[in-house]
Amino acid sequence: MNQLTHKYENLIATHCPYCAFQCGMLIAGTRDEAVISGNAEFPVNRGALCVKGWTAAETLNHPERLTTPLVRNKSGRLEPASWNTALSRAAIGFHEAQAKYGRDAAGIFGSGALTNEKTYLLGKFARVALGTSNIDYNGRFCMSSAAAAGNKAFGIDRGLPFPVADIADAEVILLIGSNIAETMPPLMQYFDAQRRNGGKLIVVDPRTSTTAQAATLHLRLTPGSDAALANGLMHLMVRDEWIDEEFILGNTVGFEQVRSTAASYWPERVERITGVPEAQIIEAARMLGSAKSAMILTGRGPEQQSQGVNNVLAFINIALALGLVGKPASGYGCLTGQGNGQGGREHGQKADQLPGYRKIDDTAAREHIAAVWGIAEEEIPKAGKSAYEMLDAMGQSGGVRAMLVMGSNVVVSSPRSERIRERLKKLDFLAVSDFFLSETAELADVVFPAAQWAEEEGTMTNLEGRVILRHRAFAPPDGVMTDIELLCRLAALLDRAEYFTYESTRDVFDELRQATAGGLADYSGITYEKIEDQNGVFWPCKSEADAGTPRLFTDGRFPTKSGRAQFHAVQHQAPAEVPTARFPLYLTTGRLLSQYQSGTQTRRIGQLTKMSPEPLAELHPQTARRYGLAQGDKVWIETKRDAAKFKIKVTPNIREDTVFLPFHWGGAQAANRLTNAALDPISRMPEFKVCAARISKVIEE
Ligand code: SF4
């Protein structure tokens, strides 16, 4: 019996609510007493779960769970209300804002945690029900730089163009800016197998993370110097004749500019920029260049920078120059972070995009989608503002005045978060759909209580591009609605009911299939039944007879205009902020094993908060000594934007010139109060990973 179809002895196969690894899990019991186990038959996690997955059921019957809509009353307090009241208030909020300021005064902020069906419907709701161009989502803060780079280089963005199982067979892996041992522990089984098979792992990270500790070679680079390191490696590939001339000539364009750019990144210079010893750079280049198979994988480290796209392109250049792309156990991949970070960026909740990874400024794409939606092409708005730009313009002239936030906690996850909090307060109307009263929901005029992962059916697309199915294990609590029901009812109140007549989630998926047909991310051949039969289906899948596409580029062709992969010559540029006399340290941010994203769920789970009760600022022992600090002392960390107080963790696992902060907390301890909103010019990704900071000891009264 297939593991995704079986439902025996009260065991239901579904998937973890958190990260993009989307571990298969089995749930038994009731919603109030659910028991979770890893699904050994799901071929991605193969039964393994991390602590977040094991404890995920606690959110289902949590005492703080929202089970009724909340509406802000005249005295400014949120109070329980009926769905009719809450939905009417939302419809009026949007109507009034648009009547006063125009169509684009309505805004939608989505999430990389939403199912494909919700993602698709949210994009349609923005364009058809509200007629606004302003829709974007928190994935803009997560994978957008790698996505943009993949599109530029390969003509397509699928995080991993191969199944994770291929990792075990790679002779060498270069992993840049990803701490998978903490963020996706079950993925480590493939890296462990790779090293057992005699493979080598090179980790690039300013921290000696748990993953870096498992590496053959760790390059502890200066934050913000990734492109210099990549160009330095390219320099050595050319100098030592490791490049694959045949692949470059037959399958790519643009290498000569890359060759000439790399000429000035000689090892001594790269050591000066990156802080990585010349010998280590040469050793890494030798390992990569002499390997028969090699993978280059990026995480948020190089991506969440104001030159994130260039950083990724510089590493893709190496994969192309070595002829790795499309070869067995080889190539470039991005390790997507959010649960549906991949599907979330394919189906139209991005400001510049329509379903199927279509571009909103492409006339043929607009006509196709308009036909599926039953509207005129001209009715589809043009591209709107990207996530941070939309948030920063809230309540301002030309900005959004009424907003619906679905499954995102922007007060915690946005850079310069206190400014975003102030902007949210300036809105005429704010609605939030979530299952807890997040820091963002606390500011809303209307809060909709949403169904959770185990309470609704829907598809997700994991980091491999494998479309999987989450089964509904339990009915939602009384008073709770799914986001799909919410959008359909709200659309009806906005007089667009005829475009939102779905009997089930499957109906939404069937329309999504039509909408994506012929697009880059083509789901037209995927059915719920096929997903169950095959343990997931890799897109593109162009017909019901098509089994899907686990590996891309195996024929050496690329969906670019030329049919070849495109090199991009990039120069290293300093981050938007570098340390100065006033702000002498780098500040970088990241994730912890026991917490997830803005912490709305994981900060409410006892076992997880016990593991990480508060954010600790990591400081090197020499830095601590310099500032007269000891383990457990408190410091003010200050940047040009704000200051916040943190307890310190003294550890040699961080560079002397760098402070690390986890970003899962809100309020006074929000790391994102301090981060820089400098945006990448292409992906509009904020520079979460590097800014300049100063610290001072807190003298308790
Ligand atoms: Fe798996 Fe990610 Fe869930 Fe952990 S958080 S159990 S790695 S899907």
Describe this structure in words.
This protein is α/β, with parallel strands linked by helices and 701 residues long. Helix 7 links the parallel strand 9 and strand 10 (217-219). Helix 3 (116-130) packs parallel to helix 19 (483-493). The chain starts with 11 loop residues before the first strand and ends with a strand. Residues 1-8 have low confidence and may be disordered. The site of iron/sulfur cluster has 14 residues, from helix 1.
Shape: globular
Bound molecules: iron/sulfur cluster
Helix content: 25-40%
Number of helical regions: 23
Q: How would you write the strand order of the largest sheet?
A: 5-4-18-17-16-6-7
Roughly what is the average pLDDT, rounded to an integer? 95
Rounded to the nearest angstrom, the radius of gyration is: 24 Å
Low-pLDDT segments: 1-8
* Alpha-beta content class: alpha/beta
End-to-end gap: 66 Å
Oligomeric state of shown chains: single chain
Strand count, sense and barrel status of the largest sheet are: 7 strands, mixed
Secondary structure: number of strands: 30
Percentage of residues in DSSP E strands: 15-25%
Question: What descriptors fit this protein?
Answer:
6-stranded mixed sheet; binds iron/sulfur cluster; 701 residues; 7-stranded mixed sheet; alpha/beta
Would you kindly provide a brief summary of this structure?
The chain is of the alpha/beta class and 701 residues long.
